[in-house]
């Protein structure tokens, strides 16, 4: 389809599956990754005209600017941005009195500010019809929150939701659609052993398929729905 796609966290898990799906659709993918993986390099080797790989630590403002510099300089329009890169620490799954509060700063820097850094650079390349999909989580929902732990992760995802909403307000008049997506409980490294064994979890390939269907057909999602899960069930903020 010849669209220009940007994906963070593209080396493995959900980000890699999204990148692969767009390559299959013959889109151009700028795949940004913290530590470039063999899988991603193989995707690039097999599709040299479609895939560009760059290292990018989304927690570092200069690194994000530098990874996106060539794209920004070329001024080619960007059609879809997926902010997928994220971190979770098992050590966050403890009561408040045992929580390492400083870890929350690391989670916030990657999960909340990472997407903001990416958008601050690509925003001038977005156009009427561009779509931004920020992979947040149901963990970012305050209205639905039943957790009694995971302070840092949940707070970082709620903050990412807020950033998405403000960006959506700012760019709505330019025709840019923004979504916050809970991708499901993923059979990935982050989802862990529990997700790999569970029948309630979803493969990154399946989740990526649903997400790509949303970004390539945004008109199918009602205008007032922005935060939802991968099955399109709206989530309360
Ligand atoms: N897994 C779940 O069940 C679940 C549920 C809800 C929401 N989510 C969200 O979905 C997204 C994808 O999750 P996943 O399960 O695919 O996770 P994953 O398999 O752990 O992959 C996460 C990716 O993000 C990259 N990353 C981490 N820190 C980064 C940084 N500072 N800069 C750039 N890239 C960085 C990782 O790179 P390295 O491997 O090099 O560190 C990795 O490629 C995350 O935002 C996560 O919070 C996941």
Quick overview of this protein structure:
The protein has 237 residues and is of the alpha/beta class. It is built from seven helices and seven strands, in the order E-H-E-H-E-H-E-H-E-H-E-H-H-E.
Secondary structure layout:
Layout: E1 4-8, H1 13-24, E2 28-33, H2 38-46, E3 51-55, H3 61-74, E4 78-83, H4 101-122, E5 126-135, H5 151-171, E6 177-182, H6 192-197, H7 204-216, E7 227-229
Helix pairs in contact: 1-7, 3-4, 4-5
The structure holds NADP nicotinamide-adenine-dinucleotide phosphate.
Explain the overall architecture.
By secondary structure, the protein is α/β, with parallel strands linked by helices. The chain has a single domain (4-229), classed as 3-Layer(aba) Sandwich (Rossmann fold), CATH 3.40.50. The chain has seven helices and seven strands, in the order E-H-E-H-E-H-E-H-E-H-E-H-H-E. Strands 3-2-1-4-5-6-7 form a seven-stranded parallel beta sheet, with helices on both faces. Helix 4 links the parallel strand 4 and strand 5 (126-135). Helix 1 crosses helix 7 (204-216) and helix 3 (61-74) packs parallel to helix 4 (101-122). The longest helix is centred in the middle third of the chain and has 22 residues, at 101-122. The radius of gyration is 17 Å and the shape is globular. The chain starts with a strand and ends in an 8-residue tail after the last strand. The model has no long low-confidence stretch (mean pLDDT 97). NADP nicotinamide-adenine-dinucleotide phosphate (NAP) binds at residues 8-9, 11-15, 33-35, 56-59, 84-88, 110, 135, 137, 182-183, 185-186, 188-191, 195, 204.
């Amino acid at each position: 389809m010849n669209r220009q796609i940007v994906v963070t966290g593209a080396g493995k898990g959900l980000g890699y599956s999204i990148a692969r799906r767009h390559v299959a659709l013959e889109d151009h993918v700028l795949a940004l990754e913290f530590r470039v993986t063999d899988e991603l390099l193989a995707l690039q080797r097999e599709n040299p005209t479609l895939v560009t790989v760059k290292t990018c630590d989304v927690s570092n403002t200069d690194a994000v600017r530098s990874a996106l510099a060539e794209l920004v300089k070329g001024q080619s329009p960007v059609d879809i941005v997926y902010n997928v890169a994220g971190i979770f620490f098992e050590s966050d799954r403890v009561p408040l009195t045992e929580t390492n509060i400083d870890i929350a700063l690391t989670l916030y820097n990657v999960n909340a500010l990472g997407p903001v850094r990416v958008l601050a650079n690509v925003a001038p390349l977005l156009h009427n019809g561009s779509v931004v999909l920020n992979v947040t989580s149901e963990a970012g929902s305050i209205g639905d929150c039943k957790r009694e732990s995971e302070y840092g992760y949940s707070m970082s995802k709620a903050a990412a939701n807020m950033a998405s909403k403000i960006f959506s307000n700012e760019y709505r008049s330019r025709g840019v659609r923004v979504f916050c997506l809970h991708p499901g409980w993923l059979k990935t490294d982050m989802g862990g052993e529990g997700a790999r064994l569970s029948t309630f979890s979803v493969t990154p390939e399946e989740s990526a398929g649903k997400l790509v269907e949303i970004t390539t057909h945004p008109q199918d999602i009602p205008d007032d729905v922005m935060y939802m899960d991968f099955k399109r069930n709206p989530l309360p903020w």
